[in-house]
Amino acid sequence: MTVPALQQGDTVGIVCLARKVSLEDIQEGINLLEAWGLSVVLGQSIGAEDGYFGGPDELRKTDFQQMLDNPQIKAIFSARGGYGTTRILDQLDFSGLQQNPKWIIGFSDVTALLCHLHTLGLPSVHGTMPLLMGKPETAEADETLRRLLFQEPLSYAVPANPHNIMGEGTGQLVGGNLILLDTISGTASDVDYSGKILFLEDVGEYYYNVDRVLVHLRRLGKLQQLAGLVVGQFSDMNDTQVPFGRDVPQIILEHCGGYGYPICFDFPVGHVDRNFAMAVGREATLRVGVDGVSLAYTNSYF
């Protein structure tokens, strides 16, 4: 399904799908979007509070639904992640979005929404969010998102990593936050990974829990038929009092290394400043070689 490229003068929306956020928190992101030539509309959930959440579930759901159904809004950004997207996901109506596709952008907790859209044949963007945008340290990530949304040429090259498994694979990009991918297993948002390039990231997890989740995904048969695996940033990892004894590359290779598809490590995607935008649902080719890694989309548009 084709999503029109953003144009200068287009209107985009920002809503809070999960953890609460203030206008001040996202002002730098708003400024950047306006510098791109976009008009920004804020949802009522920006600045709203219901304990941890950006307003009650009903407010966040209605806020997002109104933007989904508004044909004048050409893209919708989740202001931030945290937790809360899955609480409203089953109450949303995506029929209007299927008739008039638009960009939906976010990562972390928003992984569940991006996967749900993929099951409906709708592309989306795993990328940085207004809370994090517009800062000098995130300029590279911001630019990858701009190029993707405006459909300018975009491909990635990263250095070789000693843990990489060489090879080449082509398939649709799917993935995101590892724990969220496990959380949606067996739900209407669950994704079939077969023949696809899976990308993974996470933050603040315990090594044993990464292992536990990968064991679960492997037992579900989800890791065996990938076209390729892109391992992003597993930042701020924790260990137990009795050390687990394996780091993230060792854990991933133990569960995925024997299936014959290419695997690359240390890709710039995740809870880090260099969080490169990934077009979920778009076909790409992953090449992992001795001299480095490339990830390139196989066509110009969705």
Describe the structure.
The termini are close together. The protein is of the alpha/beta class and 302 residues long. The mean pLDDT is 97. The protein contains nine helices and 13 strands. Helices cover 28% and strands 23% of the residues.
Structure described in brief:
This protein is an alpha/beta fold and 302 residues long. The chain is 28% helix and 23% strand.
Helices, strands, pairings?
Blueprint: E1 11-15, H1 23-35, E2 39-42, H2 57-69, E3 73-78, H3 85-89, H4 95-99, E4 103-106, H5 111-119, E5 124-126, H6 139-149, E6 155-158, E7 167-177, H7 178-183, E8 197-203, H8 207-219, E9 228-235, H9 248-256, E10 263-264, E11 278-280, E12 283-289, E13 292-297
Parallel strand pairs: 1-2, 1-3, 3-4, 4-5, 7-8, 8-9, 9-10
Antiparallel strand pairs: 5-11, 6-13, 7-12, 12-13
Helix pairs in contact: 8-9
Organism: Rufibacter glacialis
Domain LD-carboxypeptidase C-terminal: 170-286
Protein name: LD-carboxypeptidase
